[in-house]
């Protein structure tokens, strides 16, 4: 049997080394949670759309910045795998001279934009979905534009190069090329038809009264005949009311 105190202390010390401190376990768990959160953020960022540009960035990128009204719009639709792609061409009339560039009030320009939508059953791969928001015909908007090389047209700065008014309905599906939702038309209220005050019950009653009065002027058999007819009419009127 080992009785040396130094040996006993050495054995006890060896046992204590095998016990992992709880603080260390908690630290390791916290590190795992932190790594999981970072991985989730990175995954979400990878799937995110193109980052919205600040007003300063839009100004620096744009060749022209104009306030204009959309006079018309055409759309070309195509598919690329599971992507539904739409290319838009707008005819825009400049209402306010260019804050950057050479366009002037009254100029009519061609402006192009595009968007796309994932239609596959699988999760959407990391990719941008194009311009948003988009204007509709008749709307006044501020356009941040870049010139398309070799063409007499402009492209909207991605992704938010169109600035709409505060009153614009951003949920309007026609902005992205979808059809407008069907209008819900309330049925016209039907006017209640006036009830005829002279129903069959009233008519029979009115006919029976003269017969009763006339029977009083008769004697014998004619009286009873008139009373019988009046009685039948009264029964008919009562039956109509009850039924």
Walk me through what this model shows.
By secondary structure, this protein is an alpha+beta fold. It has five helices and six strands, in the order αααββββββαα. It has helices at 5-18, 22-47, 55-61, 200-215, 221-242, and strands at 64-80, 83-100, 108-118, 140-147, 154-156, 162-163. Strands 1-2-3-5-4 form a five-stranded mixed barrel. α4 (200-215) runs antiparallel to α5. The longest helix is centred in the N-terminal third of the chain and has 26 residues, at 22-47. The chain is rod-shaped, with a radius of gyration of 44 Å. The N and C termini lie far apart (115 Å).
Tell me how many strands there are.
6
Strand order of the largest sheet: 1-2-3-5-4
Helices and strands, in N-to-C order?
Answer: HHHEEEEEEHH
- The N- to C-terminal Cα distance equals 115 Å
Give the C-level CATH assignment of the largest domain.
Answer: Mainly Beta
Biggest beta sheet attributes? 5 strands, mixed, barrel
| Computed Rg | 44 Å
Large-scale geometry:
rod-shaped
Percent of sequence in beta strands: 15-25%
Can you tell me the CATH topology of the largest domain? OB fold (Dihydrolipoamide Acetyltransferase, E2P)
Mean pLDDT rating: 80
What is the assembly state of the chains in this entry?
A: single chain
Number of domains: 3
Tell me the structural class: alpha+beta
Descriptive keywords:
single chain; 243 residues; alpha+beta; OB fold (Dihydrolipoamide Acetyltransferase, E2P); 5-stranded mixed beta barrel; 5 helices; 24% strand; rod-shaped; disordered N terminus
């Amino acid at each position: 049997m080992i009785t040396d105190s130094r040996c006993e202390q050495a054995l006890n010390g060896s046992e204590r080394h095998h016990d992992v401190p709880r603080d260390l376990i908690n630290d390791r768990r916290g590190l795992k949670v932190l790594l999981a959160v970072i991985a989730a953020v990175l995954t979400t960022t990878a799937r995110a759309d193109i980052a919205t540009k600040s007003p300063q960035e839009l100004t620096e990128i744009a060749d022209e910045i104009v306030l204009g009204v959309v006079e018309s719009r055409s759309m070309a639709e195509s598919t690329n795998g599971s992507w539904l792609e739409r290319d838009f061409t707008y005819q825009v009339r400049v209402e306010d001279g260019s804050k950057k560039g050479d366009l002037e009030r009254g100029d009519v320009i061609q402006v192009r934009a595009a968007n796309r939508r994932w239609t596959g059953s699988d999760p959407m791969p990391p990719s941008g979905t194009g311009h948003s928001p988009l204007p509709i015909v008749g709307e006044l908007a501020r356009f941040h534009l870049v010139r398309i090389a070799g063409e007499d047209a402009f492209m909207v700065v991605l992704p938010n190069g169109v600035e709409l008014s505060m009153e614009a309905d951003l949920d309007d599906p026609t902005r992205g090329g979808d059809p407008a939702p069907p209008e819900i038309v309330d049925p016209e209220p039907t006017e209640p038809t006036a009830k005829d005050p002279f129903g069959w019950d009233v008519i029979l009653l009115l006919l029976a009264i003269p017969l009763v009065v006339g029977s009083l002027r008769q004697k014998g058999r004619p009286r009873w005949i008139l009373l019988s007819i009046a009685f039948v009419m009264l029964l008919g009127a009562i039956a109509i009311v009850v039924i």
